[in-house]
Structures are given as structure tokens and as C-alpha cells.
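Okay, is this right?
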Amino acid sequence: MPLLITPTNRFPLYFCVMITSLNAKNNDFFEQVYAVVRLIPNGRVTSYGAIASYLGSKKSSRMVGWAMNASHRLMDFPAHRVVNRVGALTGKMHFSTPNRMQELLETENIQVVNDQIVDFKIHFWDPNLELM
């Protein structure tokens, strides 16, 4: 939910406009992240960094992570298909149970051992290559 700030003596109008612009940019970026994630095929995974790179913000992988953390309000959203750059399930703590991310990946025939995708390079889906 966007931060609502109204002009007061503490927050001049120009500051409020700046905050509103930042929130709009974040929302737009998050929606772009969600659009890419919805394109990840069943049985494939991608990384926060690959999504950021595809969106033209190569150094924004952490912001992709924030978007993924906020995605749990979305229905039928494949958040489990986004992992870190080496295939580790770093986002698993944001699922309903500690094992839920792994369970969802395993239903798509992706083997996970010790919170790490086995044969990560085989399952990796690079939007920079796949969406060209």
C-alpha cells in the first residue's frame, strides 16, 4: 500500500509529490516483475538478477526480491519459480510453511536438496534469451 503523505508544515508539497512519484515507480516496477514471473514456464526457474537485467535495471535484484515478497497477495502466482543466482531457495521463508516453496518446485519435477535446486543450469530460464 502506498505511503500517504499530505502537505503540512513538516512535509512541503514538493516533498509529497516526490514520495508519490517514488511509490508510482515502485508499483510500476513491481508490476513489470510480476509480468515476467507469470511467463516463467512450468518446470523452469529464474533468478532475481535475471529479471532485473531483463527489465533494464541490472543492479536491482534486491528490488525484484521486494516485489516477490509483496507478491503473496496475488492469486495463482508462481513466486516459487524465482530463486537466487545459484539456485538457492532464499525466498522460502515468505511462503506459508518453510517447505512450501520446495514442495511447489517438486510438483514441477524440479529436485531440491538442502534448499538448492539440483541441476540449476538445466532448469534456468533466462528472460533475456527466452523473451527476445
Notes: The beta strands are 46-47, 82-83, 112-113, 116-117. The longest strand covers residues 46-47. Residues 1-7, 13-22 have pLDDT under 50 and may be disordered. Helices lie at 13-37, 48-54, 61-70, 100-107, 120-123, 127-130.
